[in-house]
Amino acid sequence: MSTAERLKAAAELFPDEVVTTAHVRHLELPAGGGRFALITLDNGLDHTKPTTFGPRSLGELDAALDRVTAEAERGEIVAVGLTGKPFIFAVGADLKGVELLRHRDDALAIGRGGHDVFRRFAELPVPSFAYYNGAALGGGVEVGLHCTYRTIAAQSPAFALPEVFLGLVPGWGGCTLLPNLIGAERALKVIIENSLSQNRMLKAPKVHELGITDAIFDSADFLEQSLHWTSAVLRGELTVQRPEVDRGEAWDRAVAAARAFADGKVHGAAPAAYRALDIVAAAKNGDVAAGFAAEDEALADLIMGGELRSGIYAFNLVQKRAKRPVGAPDRSLARPVTKVGVVGAGLMASQLALLFARRLEVPVVLTDIDQARVDKGVGHVHEQIDMLLLKGRVGQDQANRLKALVTGSLDKATAFADADFVIEAVFEEMGVKQQVFAELEAVVPEHAILATNTSSLSVTEMASRLAHPERVVGFHFFNPVAVLPLLEIVRAEQTDDASLATAFAVSKKLKKTSVLVKDAPAFVVNRILTRFMGSVLGSIDEGTDIATADRALAPLGLPMSPIQLLELVGPAVAHHVAGTLHAAFPDRFAVSPNLTRVVTAGKRAFYVHDSGRPELDPEVLALFETGDAALTEEQVRDRALEAIAEEIGLMLEEGVVAAAEDIDLCLITGAGWPFHLGGITPYLDRSGVSERVLGRRLLAPGVADVPA
Amino acid sequence: MPRTVREVVFVDGVRTPFGKAGPKGIYHETRADDMVVKCIRELLRRNPGLPPERIEEVAVAATTQIGDQGLTLGRTAAILAGLPTSVPGYSIDRMCAGAMTAVTSTAGAIAFGAADVAVAGGVEHMGRHPMGEGVDPNPRFVSEKLVDESALFMGMTAENLHDRFPHLTRARADAYAARSQEKAAKAYADGRIQPDLVPISVRRTQSESGETGWGLATADEPMRPGTTPEQLAGLKTPFRPHGRVTAGNAAGLNDGATASLIAAEDVARELELPVRMRLVSYAFAGVEPEVMGVGPVPATEKALARAGLSIGDIGLLEVNEAFAVQVLALLDHYGIADDDPRVNQYGGAIAFGHPLASSGVRLMTQLARQFEQQPDVRYGLTTMCVGFGMGGTVIWENPHWEGK
């Protein structure tokens, strides 16, 4: 099948593609450089709709290459260039097209189609030049790698190979060409390390420093200077020099180091990184054709695998669903928030005060029961602002502004008399919180929102004694507040639309991912984690040794093991939440007697690190009283996953969230659960757990897996 | 406080290729501010010895200061060009003599000692901002007959000029115009123009106007080499039935930008910047708005008088060709032949185009090249007519002059 035929067949599978046109325009290079054909990739939309490659787009580029190849063969042009529309070079394969693929042959065709088109830039009878004028991701980066030379705009904000992050490999030449251009170590930094570090992007100077580009020019006249440089190269006035790539042991060492890095991130649980590593390892011999063939196979396998489909599903959740929270009232109902109150001046309260001040840029007043606590809280915020200043994250003027915004007071009546939004972060006990709200209601303006950062108490009950319970909302952050994006927004029974809309508006300004949840015990993340943890602790209580139980979930590639998670949350907090959930659902949530003993003994950790590696603390071990029913890792894992599936099934029946997608969004953004699991429900579906436990899938077929 | 007036020099000048205004023009999808910004950046690249922070003023002219030609363009262009925030800037409007006024204003500041180095230039994107966009002339102009209505339409003022000087016929204007095209073509062939052009990347999204995608403007779009007086004789006279002014013997509607570096001579020497021309004198003068094309006459008289020179001392003239008749009026005044070789050696605006407020610096850049080539010439002048009845003239001395 010819390239054109292959792409045409692929295009039929994807009728809704936003097509990127490859415009060919001719120009005279400066300084007598000769006649030049410049290809512009442009999907005809503005920069908010970045240019992508689907099958028809590849066909367009193929046709453009037909033209310039013929011109080059006839000696009509001296070289060919490639650039993008304003602010965007190209951001890679169109994922919507990938989601639609059902057969491995079609997936294979996409890989080959990309290669067949892109490699033509290397096979032209004249040199080719890629001008990375703006955002270049994935296939966008790769098409440039096929060119003879590359330049980059110095202010270009985003350059990355995010494939591994999603569950793919840079399979249109990236895995093969990049290490051959800049060496394995640098290439793997881009392909593996950045990709697996929350999809870290490179800024242009770094791209240039890595040797990916041959020249860097300011964006202000980037194309002009690139063409000027092109002319100088073509006329022999400039010689491009690239350092020799080390194909010795350094190559193997780099691959081994990147493999260790991948292990640390995905724990062998997702295949993409390892497929990329295998191709990079093999690329050492410089055999480009073999590399491309390996890329095709890897792409086809991964596209037909659940991990990638989960990855795309997860990507869409955080990119799209997170921006339009399902169930949020019309945003026009939101009231302005010009001053914020924080009750409590502890660590959590201080984190909240800093976040509100930074993002809303309005006065934030902390209150507590005595001056010493208030001073400590405000002092802590001011220290954090100084840290931001020191790191260059804010300037001196902004630091002054933020410090002036955050103040403390013992006098709630005065401090909150003109507050529009007051959040409490006091001790997690219903009576205390109710009393705080009662006090607040007496002093705040009528329109003020009263928010609670409770992690497990009933917001409805907390509001129940107020004259105006309709203005109470749950505003549940995740620790550390500055790192985890999730904010569970809880609608209590009487919460009205205006208050809820205000809460969502505030969340948006705080740059949080908000999910609307029902006022149900422990909401979403804590309920699932507690159920999961309860299952693992139950296995231990019954007689499985701690190390075995703690290893049991490793094949999932979760960010931390159950015990590490327990230590992060703090045994006391975990114990408290377990108690709350046990009270609500005694059948499913137990309070581990061993956990109780650990908390009573005041232990905060299970592992000690004295020897340099984590070892179970003998003092903790001594506290444990267990049965003799030892489970295997697999049994522990099955039990834990079944518990999670059951709980999610019940939560959906109870209407805790609008859909299973929201549960996944919560787990990804609030617990850091990985993309390759799609949060968790895609994994529960594809591993058959949900079918086994609930007798049904949690997501419809095709939503996060290969469509039937 | 003791004060010495300092010599002011023209260090360097560049411009974009000029384009035809309108949907088919090369710059139809290019912003005006970007064009002037790219000129400023090119000046900095060409003069690496100049630390950007030594620039103390950025004066940018535009006639229609709206949109991408508004927002105090001198200041915003400085920021967009990447100059340090310490460098101030301002906008200037004297219609066609905008860039010329940017040069004389900054030169005045430098001579006075208020600055050492300045960027002076202009831009006019007549496609994005047609002449007269957003104007609101005071009704008193008409009710009190302060000016004739024709004063607002430059083509009509050119017809008025033909009326005033009946011996300046259409045939002479057409012959002059054809020569301008011929000289411009030769100047291109000799490579006199290209060294001072800043290539501009241009985007086109509409295929009716040609190939789409990004391209590069490297040459003036309006040029019509090979134009003959016979061809010109057949053109319509849009401003008056059976008139004399045509699209062929006038500059068109154009898009373009220019920028120059103006410095105190001692500072230029200290920084080892080139000294291409030394400012001798300048003058602006007013005439009746209905015959604005005669403006260069009193302006030149005044500038010569202030310099203690006579027209006989002037070896080279760069006269803006808004209309052929307006050049002829100046030459006629001084008894200079229509085809005198001292005048517009590289051709003029009839060939290259006249993006209003940018043109003054084009004249200077071309005069500077001619000075370099002709060290036997000591003095030259740049002059132009200005809307609403004005003229401006700047007299320059050739630093390469070998005489005594």
Automatic annotation (TrEMBL), chain A:
Write the record's keywords in alphabetical order, separated by commas: Fatty acid metabolism, Lipid degradation, Lipid metabolism, Lyase, Multifunctional enzyme, NAD, Oxidoreductase
Pathway listed: Lipid metabolism; fatty acid beta-oxidation
Q: Does the keyword Membrane apply?
A: no
- Family assignment? In the central section; belongs to the 3-hydroxyacyl-CoA dehydrogenase family.
Transmembrane parts of this sequence: none
Q: Which reaction does it catalyse?
A: a (3S)-3-hydroxyacyl-CoA + NAD(+) = a 3-oxoacyl-CoA + NADH + H(+)
Q: Which domain of life is it from?
A: Bacteria
Alphabetized InterPro entries for the sequence: 3-OHacyl-CoA_DH_NAD-bd (IPR006176), 3HC_DH_C (IPR006108), 6-PGluconate_DH-like_C_sf (IPR008927), ClpP/crotonase-like_dom_sf (IPR029045), Enoyl-CoA_hydra/iso (IPR001753), FA_oxidation_alpha_subunit (IPR050136), NAD(P)-bd_dom_sf (IPR036291)
Q: Where is the 3-hydroxyacyl-CoA dehydrogenase NAD binding domain?
A: 339-519
The 3-hydroxyacyl-CoA dehydrogenase C-terminal domain covers 523-603
Q: What is this protein called?
A: 3-hydroxyacyl-CoA dehydrogenase
Q: Do the record's keywords include Lyase? A: yes
Automatic annotation (TrEMBL), chain B:
Q: Name one GO molecular function term.
A: acetyl-CoA C-acyltransferase activity
According to its UniProt record, the EC number is 2.3.1.16
Q: Which InterPro entries match?
A: Thiolase, Thiolase-like, Thiolase-like_sf_Thiolase, Thiolase_C, Thiolase_CS, Thiolase_N
Q: Where is the Thiolase N-terminal domain?
A: 8-266
The UniProt record lists the Thiolase C-terminal domain at 276-397
Please tell me which top-level EC class this enzyme sits in.
transferase
Q: Sorted alphabetically, which keywords does the UniProt record give?
A: Acyltransferase, Transferase
Q: Where is this region: Disordered?
A: 204-225
Alphabetical list of Gene3D superfamilies matching this protein: 3.40.47.10
The UniProt record lists the keyword Acyltransferase: yes
Q: According to its UniProt record, which protein family does this protein belong to?
A: Belongs to the thiolase-like superfamily. Thiolase family.
Q: Which PANTHER family does its entry note? A: 3-KETOACYL-COA THIOLASE, PEROXISOMAL, 3-OXOADIPYL-COA_3-OXO-5,6-DEHYDROSUBERYL-COA THIOLASE
Protein known as = Acetyl-CoA C-acyltransferase
Species of origin reads Streptomyces spiramenti
Lineage of producing organism: Bacteria, Bacillati, Actinomycetota, Actinomycetes, Kitasatosporales
